[in-house]
Write a structure and sequence with these properties.
The longest helix is centred in the last third of the chain and has 25 residues. A 7-stranded antiparallel beta sheet has the order 3-2-6-5-4-1-7. By secondary structure, it is an alpha+beta fold. A hairpin with a 7-residue loop joins β2 and β3. The protein folds into 2 domains: 80 residues, SH3 type barrels (Roll); 49 residues. It is elongated, with a radius of gyration of 18 Å. The chain has 3 helices and 7 strands; from the N terminus they run ββββββαβαα. α2 runs antiparallel to α3.
């Protein structure tokens, strides 16, 4: 089973990744830089390296599979740099509701505030949909 996340942070995200090795001495690591809108598929395959911690298999944009540091992923989730795609969809629906409510009540200020956020979410949503369906 896997879970999909999207990079929500405008500055992207840097992940410590493990490419080879089963000990700290022979581990080959690097930093993967991702940008806003990139999709992570987090798999249920993990690897523990003594002295370094847990790494979990992540596929980035359906192209590249790497073992990413669980610490980095947890920090990114807690700071809202990445979000589950389900949350993105829920927020998108909520913003549509807010737009409808602003139009019904003829509240221009609310409408202008919500429409900007809605446009940003729509761009991310379209990007995520195009990547997911290009599997």
């Amino acid at each position: 089973m896997s879970t999909y996340f999207i990079v929500f942070n405008a500055d992207g995200l840097k992940l410590a990744c493990l490419y080879y090795g089963n000990k700290k001495d022979n581990a080959i690591r690097n930093i993967e830089e991702t940008k806003q809108g990139d999709i992570f598929e987090i798999m249920d395959v993990g690897k523990f390296i003594v002295g370094m911690g847990w790494y979990i298999l992540v596929t980035i944009n359906n192209k590249q599979s790497v073992f990413a540091s669980i610490r980095d992923l947890e920090e990114a989730m807690e700071s809202k740099k990445i979000q589950p795609l389900v949350d993105l969809e829920l927020e998108h629906c909520y913003l549509k509701y807010q737009i409808d409510r602003a139009l019904e009540s003829k509240n221009k200020e609310l409408f202008m505030n919500v429409i900007k956020r809605y446009k940003d979410f729509t761009i991310l949503k379209e990007k995520s949909s195009s990547m997911l369906f290009n599997i």
